[in-house]
Amino acid sequence: EAHLVESGGGSVQPGGSLKLSCATSGFIFTMYSMTWVRQFPGKGLEWVSSITSAGESKTYAEAVQGRFTISRDNALNTVYLQMNELKSEDTALYYCVRGPRSRSSDGPRGQGTQVTVSS
To answer: DSSP string spanning the chain?
Structure first.
């Protein structure tokens, strides 16, 4: 059974940075693309970024392009999301999902980590 645990969220001021981590177990990490999604209060999931299994291709939502960077360490079965130049509109609950962008809403995911951007 896939197990994903997100961490690294917190409260930061606008313009600040955070690095989210997602530690995984229970499946062969190197076989899967991985995805980050976020959920605003009272809203559905929004795709943020995806990375292919070997890390050779990375894609980003327009809202985060140039500010966020997705990466993975296949030796540690972990995927990361470096978030720079944070804005108040980035405030959300962030989840990592096993699978590509197409699995954003139904792929296995963790419990999420809260990111709050506020002055």
So the answer is: --EEEEE--EEE-TT--EEEEEEEESS-GGG--EEEEEE-TTS-EEEEEEE-TTS--EEE-TTTTTTEEEEEETTTTEEEEEE-S--GGG-EEEEEEES-GGGTTTS-B-S-EEEEE--
As a whole number of Å, the end-to-end CA separation of the chain is 40
Q: Which amino acid is at 93?
A: L
pLDDT at 56 over 90: yes
pLDDT tens column, 83-96? 999 999 999 999 99
**Confidence tier at 41 by pLDDT (50, 70, 90):** confident
Residue 78 has pLDDT above 90, yes or no: yes
